[in-house]
Amino acid sequence: MSTAERIAKAFHEAYETLAPEHGYRTREASAKPWSEVPADNKDLMVATVQRLLDLGTIRPAGDGA
Fold first, then answer.
1. How far apart are CA 51 and CA 32, in angstroms?
2. Where are the domains of the chain?
3. By the 8 A CB rule, do 2 and 51 touch?
4. What percentage of the chain's residues is helix, strand, coil (to nearest 5)?
5. What span, in angstroms and rounded, lies between the C-alpha atoms of 12 and 14?
6. CB 3.0–4.6 Å: which of 27, 28, 49, 58 could bond 4 by disulfide?
7. Taking the CB of residue 8, how many other CB atoms lie within 10 A of it?
8. What is the rounded distance in angstroms from the CA atom of residue 30 to the CA atom of residue 37?
9. 18-62 pLDDT, tens per residue?
């Protein structure tokens, strides 16, 4: 699993966990574990994270920065 996919997966899981604490409820049909997220959606999330990594907006832990 690439760094971008690991971050996207962690974001997805954190979002689903935290959403109810912030008054948001994911539609039942949309609430899926990462392994069941449709490939097109997953690819978009991973590409978005990769763009942020490339721009230096986010950095993986342990990169020395």
1. 24
2. 3-55
3. no
4. 60, 0, 40
5. 6
6. 49
7. 23
8. 8
9. 999 999 988 877 788 999 999 999 999 999 999 999 999 999 887
